[in-house]
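Exercise 7. Predict the joint structure of the components listed below.
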Amino acid sequence: MSDVLDRIHRLGLLDPTDQEVLQRRTLAPRLVEIRGKVGGFIDNRKQNANVLLDHLAERLSTEYGMAEAMSRAKFIYSRVAEPPIIDELAERCDFVVAAIGD
Amino acid sequence: MTMPEEITSQSLDDLTAVMELLFESGWTDGLPVMPPTPRNVQRMLAGTARPLDELIGRIPPKGGRATIEKIAINAVMAGCKPTYLPVVISAVEALLDDRCNTRGVQCSTHIATPLVIVNGPIVQALDINSGHNVFGQGWRANATIGRAVKLVLVNLGGAVPGVTDKATFGHPGKFTYCIAENEAANPWEPLHVERGFASTESTVTVFGAEAPHNINNHWSATPHDLLRTVADTMATLGSNHLYLGGESFVVFSPEHADVLAKAGWAKRDVRAFLFEQARKPLTQVKIGGMYGPETRRNLWPRWIDHENAAERIPIARRPEDITILVAGGAGRHSVYLPGWGSRSVTRKIEC
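Solution:
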């Protein structure tokens, strides 16, 4: 791919993308262990999202020693979580399970 | 523009090689694009008085910076004329309005993609199709304005199919999805006038929409009969609107609009009827759809009685969430455009 981009740039063609942003990795640093950590769980309101996340939090607590679970529900799955929810989870949690798919 | 006699077979081969290279770059929608040479982009930028480094905003989900220059580069690739550029820029500005929920529309498993609707004198000036085959092919303005907007969303937003764009299906409007309202055949006020703009102003409206659902009614001569067909097409178990409400569009053909207007119906009468009639019985809603029998997670108005088997569930929370347009050519069809977590946003086109 970089070879293709090099050839395009050599031709003087202009780039329709924002390479700096597109190549940025956004994964958070991985945790070594769950024990003693605070986990956040966002229910995106899809069917059974709350059931699955409650079960996950329960198992992380009993089997992996998670210290505390904070569960919050978004208004609707199609929208970004409200800023107060994101701010609260970012401040208090060591990790967050952001959503589940269908 | 280069005259045909100055083009050699070698330059045509070179052009083909460049187009193949652009395919490999991943910057296209799967169709050939015009090469974004500095000269082509300069020519495109002549279509606007705005400075090329002006930042319109960051396109979700990845947040690429949409400057006037970047939009112009994508407009060149889409095949736009310079005069189309202000429409594309204004559409991008509208898409960055939070109400439009472009981030969600770009990433969802749902089928929706932004539709661009143009109103005002610019429709005639740019020859944007509002008549026969309005959602189809054959008009450079419709095809390339819609395509430029999509290239901006993908190239700057980073919505890569299967990676960040998780659409289960998508629909053909993801190549291009741009229409104009047929104001000449509209018996009511056009969309932009309804929204407070002067009829002499030109606007662009964007809305995350499913593909058009056809509404065929060649028979009805009264509003009640005709609109029952429309209402029945709107209220279906597979539609998000039955569970979540939100905005959706009905695009009436001129002939259908004529039936309604000749009977003295205003847009508000049509909306009121559709709000009352585009409903499904609660007992049917519980058999499937998004949430099945567990109806408490639906975003329904409080007045819905979840325990009353005779309750009828509307597809919107209020009549104003049903937006009405008139477009298309002769023929007794209309179309319904369900949305997805998206509110339409209208902006004046700034040159």
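Discussion. The CA atoms of residues 36 and 74 of chain A lie 26 Å apart.
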